[in-house]
Amino acid sequence: MFSLSRARCSGYSATxxxxxxxxxxxxxxxxxNTSKTDAGWLRIQRSRGFATVPLVYDHHxxxxxSVRDEKDSPILFLHGLxxxxxxxxxxxxxxxxxxxxxxxxxxxxxxxxSPHDHRHDYTSMAADVLEFISxxxxxxxxxxxxxxxxxxxxxxxxxxxxxxxxxxxVDNAPVDALIQSDFxxxxxxxxxxxxxxxTRQAEADKILExxxxxxxxxxxxxxxxxxxSGNGNGNGNGNGNEAPPSNVQKFRVPLNILGKAxxxxxxxPFKDPSAVRFEKxxxxxxxxxxxxxxxxxxxxIGQFFPRFEMADVEAGHWxxxxxxxxxxxxxxxxxxxNE
Length: 339
What we know:
By secondary structure, the chain is α/β, with parallel strands linked by helices.
């Protein structure tokens, strides 16, 4: 069982579940990962029966570090469906500045500049993140994930709780749920844009407007457009012989792969909280205008994450962009050292 108490801090309210230990501090400068990924870098995990992919990332270093180096308790930021590391650039810089910790904003598989793979589910995405942590020698990281990234972060924490310090889940919960039909509609519109061979974003927006009336959502989706270099998947093949870009814009994300994965994007790979749980601090931030984390799932959150806190931010599902200051306050309050 868990008891609830409320605390308020301009812009959001926090619901705390019994004792909770807090973490470390941050400030910023962007250092871009220059290594490129390609199919040759895929690492076959024979024991798992599928390949992990090397994740491309941005590294935001604090100007005034409170940690030993970038391996010491960094923050890993995981985006949502159709997102990428660039969506979290501004907030990553702010958190690095405010907490004095290094922030790695990742491109998850089939998103941004990371490689494409036919498998797209939370088990494979969690495996990619675990491989990233291992390959970079990161010690006791904090995981922050929004939506799809939130479920990935939760899956990582439940699979390997000993290597994760704490997690922040943004507007998602450890339950099976139906994904919004909007996403299937988005893919339909994005495919129409690919077929049209547009050369300007305004042309793409005119097509997408038939499928989504919200301009901010259209701008978010159109952020995936790029001018391919001619290698077929939009990531570059890493050998320096790519064909020059054309004027035609295409979506960087593999629409067919993500379209087939949609039916499983609402799933959660762990079903039995009596078998596995993360007994370290966890913060669940939800939008007050979003339906992704209803009150009915709070007991399930408490079973998987018994030391969780809940923070309500006045926003919808896209709360990091809708109310960044309230989000920042909630994260800093949770992660700053206990006085």
